[in-house]
Amino acid sequence: MDEAKNDEKYDLEQLDEETLFIVSQTFKALSDPTRIRILHLLSHKEHSVNEIAEKLSLLQSTVSHQLRFLKNLRLVKYRREGTTLFYSPDDNHVMNVLQQTINHAQHH
Questions:
Q1: Which residues constitute the domain of residue 29?
Q2: Phi and psi for 57 in degrees, rounded to 5?
Q3: 76: CB partners within 8 A, 6+ apart
Q4: Which position among 3, 22, 37, 108 has the lowest Cβ density within 10 Å, counted as fewest Cβ atoms?
Q5: Which intervals hold domain HTH arsR-type (predicted)?
């Protein structure tokens, strides 16, 4: 009987395909140095595409491309002010993972 319960518990803990895909895409997002830099900058305050490009010495097209990738994963969101979009983090869980990983890397 105990084996059956363990098997049932294991089945309930299995990750569905959608969850696996989202988790792997999130780690893919966090595996790119440019995206890490953008997310780290946004973790302090919201910024426009131009501000991000200027502060990180990146091309505006590069920043826009990376923000689109991050937005599709719901890692960033934006608000519009006139013709300017201001980006900020959209998921505290992922931002916490990022910050913890940065803390780990800096803890020699």
A1: 2-106
A2: 55, 50
A3: 38, 39, 42, 67, 70, 87, 88, 89, 90
A4: 108
A5: 15-108
Contacts of 87 (CB under 8 A, 6+ apart): 42, 46, 47, 48, 49, 52, 67, 76, 77, 78
**What global pTM score does this model have?**
0.83
Beta strands per DSSP E along 1-108: 47-48, 76-81, 84-89
The helix/strand/coil state of 64 is helix
On whether the CB atoms of residues 59 and 52 are closer than 8 A, the answer is no
Q: How many domains does the chain have?
A: 1
Identify residue 89 by its one-letter amino acid code: P
Distance between CA atoms of 27 and 31, rounded to whole angstroms?
Answer: 6
Categorize the per-residue pLDDT at 7 as very low, low, confident or very high, splitting at 50, 70 and 90.
Answer: low
DSSP 14: P
Question: What CATH number is attached to the domain comprising 8?
Answer: 1.10.10.10
